[in-house]
Amino acid sequence: MNALASSPAAARSLARSSAASVDAALLAKYDGLRVPRYTSYPTAPHFTPAVTADVYGGWLEAMDLSRSGSLYLHIPFCHQMCWYCGCHTKIVARYAPIAEYLGHLRREIAMVADRIPGRLAVRHIHFGGGTPTMMAPEDVGPLFDLMRSRFDVAADAELAIEIDPRTLTAEMAVALGRAGVNRASLGVQDFDPTVQEAINRVQPRETTEQALGWLRDAGIDNVNLDLMYGLPHQSVESVARSAEIALEMAPDRLSVFGYAHVPWMKTHQKKIDESVLADTLGRWEQFAAIADTLDAAGYRAIGLDHFARPGDELAIQQEEGRLGRNFQGYTTDDAEVLLGFGASSIGALPQGYVQNAVPFDQYATAIEEGRLPTAKGIALTDDDRLRRDLIMRLMCDLSVDAGAVAKAHGQEESLFDAELADMADLVADGVAVIEGRRVHVPEAARPLMRIVAARFDAHLASGAGRHSRAV
Q: Could you tell me the pTM of the whole model?
């Protein structure tokens, strides 16, 4: 455990004072930077077509079955577009496209399993979207049965799914429970009706409470709620109130994401009135208000943007220095193999990262032709693996001993001395503290940890323009 995290009470005290101590000029200085969220390293903008279906197939065939595995399934459909959305999704009014897509998904699972020299042990399965519960209840069980027939899914595996409470039915909750789902992440974003209207996501509190009731009645007791800040019409007071309402629903974990306004990439975001979006300082204050509200209720801050009850496994792993981070955010999943299924999904193997085709037609054509739908990826070098370990520990622990990481990879402890010396500006601004070869991110600078991590990113210069705002 690092020195800064060794005193939770002191850390929480710093968190409560963070908004008041923010220097507006400092925020403006770093707001212009665009840095990755580091759910992987190297990050997705650096993936290239050099990783082909044949390359991925070779990685699968060479798989060491002593390694642990997890599965990610992408269901890219929604019934309505939320104006803030940055996901790969498609709006559908009929079930036929979803049924056709699920057929392709099942074929892909079989194709991948056929390339593996045995049955991979799996401890985590995650359904993301889009809205995974756009599936019909009768399609849920057979899909889980297929995965259990092709992989060794542990009896106590975490089976998680993302849910839009507006479309969940009691019948679907029962189907999920019968399939063994034991964790649900519910999108909320904000409880204020004015904000909901402005983002095209009208979701009364009662709708979320009803969905939670159905899930808990079905035996799905592990619940996460997603909140957002930086949305139109939000204020410090309104986001704090939304956090208070969320707490009344007793979630185990909460994710608090900042809205990324990129209308030049996601054209539907042009429907959001920019004049009612908070400025940089306002966004910071909104995040601090949510964090303070959750802290006062006893939740622990996890990494960049997650919060968990002290007894939750996410908080326990952070305390023990075992917290992980992948494409689903902070996680207890320590699998060495992540297999991604579905259009746009990303997988991670010891050899590197691989991403499926994003356009539905390209994904479907590959499956119909009996080809893995691989579009791009990146093969890892030894330097990538070293820097990934360093960046991930910093993103999870807010502290890392750069010398110790280098030594663990067979390198000289002085390997990152140039990067540490180059952080003089971050140290002067209070964004980083350096003690020997250990770098800390002070609690009050937690939302800026990506800036510190980026100083160790050897690929950043070639892809910085495609990342999100630093603040």
A: 0.92
